[in-house]
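ok here's TrkA family potassium uptake protein:
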Amino acid sequence: MKSVLIIGMGRTGRHLASKMQELGNDVMIVDKNPAIIEALSGRFTDSNICDCTNDAIIKALGVDNFDICFVTIGEDFQASLVVTSLLKQFGARMIVSKAKQDIQADLLRKIGADEIVCPEREISEKLAVRYNADNIFDFIPLTADYSIYELPIQAAWIGQTLSGLNVRRKYQINIIAVKHDNEINPNVGPDYRFREGDHIILIGRSNEVFKLAAKM
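and the structure:
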């Protein structure tokens, strides 16, 4: 369990707060809009109406006591910069700030953010990859070059073993699990024999995975 401070209750902040609380963490939410906090106070007992661009407010919140401080302020990027800077100044252990553009991300890093999230861009990239090929069911980026993908198997794979197909050499991918009827088997050995309805969870480069997906 972690103690979490979330500043800014726009869409990103609300979803983040709900999920962090669902996962069993102690969550404090903050927004300067009384109507927003009043609407959320029934779900979050630890909530505050305050303007975190005020250094006295940041100090009073005791930000150094939280494991993670999230800055999810929506449209007011200047406020996001000020809050991120103040969090750093008052000893926040971990600062995660939201950005919409690369230049915003660079500025937030320079003034103290430990990590930057770009929800709109990340969702757009994921959607683009997901719908670029009909047979890509899920996609998790790892680095600029490699990602995790979920794909159905080719019909010709049914009844064949993983070692017999030699997919690493043929397709330059690494299968890390097999999914069947929504159950994942992460211990796939070379003797695993593929069944109808199997999906593979793999790590690979986008261009190689798209080539494979086109054959599914």
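+1. Residues 122-214 form a domain with the Alpha-Beta Plaits fold (CATH 3.30.70.1450).
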